[in-house]
């Protein structure tokens, strides 16, 4: 089973600030009672991040929505950013009565444990030992607080994992062997994500589906 987990994501989550991790980027909210000349540099000095954060660039409507819905940042505060999708340098509230707020981001220097392969902010590892779906999910989830069976949500990730899995394939007929991924077939009707499983939450990408039974 391929699994995912990220040291950088963990480093982001344990920062003593309001944080949100998305797409391999760590977004950090900084608030102060006084103007800070280098608010993002202060984070680096007091953290284990591998690179100095910078003022955030909100470069898509999808990211903007995710940041707002994350409940990580105070909707009544006005966070200064390098750029927002509307051309402004403000995130959340347009004004605030007191204090200074900044939204910083860091892409970090992605490092993975030995035996893992980095991709898009996560670390993947392939296990060749045959396991049931339940056993595979348990093994993947037990590696760290942020690990789970790999979930394929887009075509680039699908191509990466397919290539990664094939690199372990010993078959000479190029047919490959099936591997478990973090989606399950519900009531023989549709596919759902096993992370925070909701039987009513149907997934929209399933190009990894290759056999009648889905594995």
Entry keywords:
6-stranded mixed sheet, 2 domains, single chain, alpha+beta, 21% helix, 4-stranded antiparallel sheet, 12 strands, elongated, disordered C terminus, 215 residues
SSE topology:
Layout: E1 3-5, H1 7-13, E2 18-22, E3 25-32, H2 39-45, E4 54-55, H3 61-69, E5 78-80, E6 90-92, E7 100-106, E8 117-119, E9 122-125, H4 133-142, E10 148-149, H5 155-166, E11 183-186, E12 190-193
Parallel strand pairs: 5-7
Antiparallel strand pairs: 1-9, 1-10, 2-3, 3-7, 4-7, 5-6, 8-9, 11-12
What is the number of strand segments?
A: 12
Largest sheet composition: 6 strands, mixed
Task: Sketch the topology as an H/E string, one letter per element.
Answer: EHEEHEHEEEEEHEHEE
Low-confidence stretches: 1-5, 209-215
What is the share of helical residues? Answer: 10-25%
General description of the model:
Helices cover 21% and strands 22% of the residues. The protein is α+β, with helices and mostly antiparallel strands and 215 residues long. The protein folds into 2 domains: 25-106, no CATH class; 117-193, no CATH class. Strands 2, 3, 4, 5, 6 and 7 form a 6-stranded mixed β-sheet that branches. Strands 8-9-1-10 form a 4-stranded antiparallel β-sheet, sandwiched between helices. A two-stranded antiparallel sheet has the order 11-12. It is elongated, with a radius of gyration of 20 Å. The termini are close together. Mean pLDDT is 77; it is low at 1-5 and 209-215.
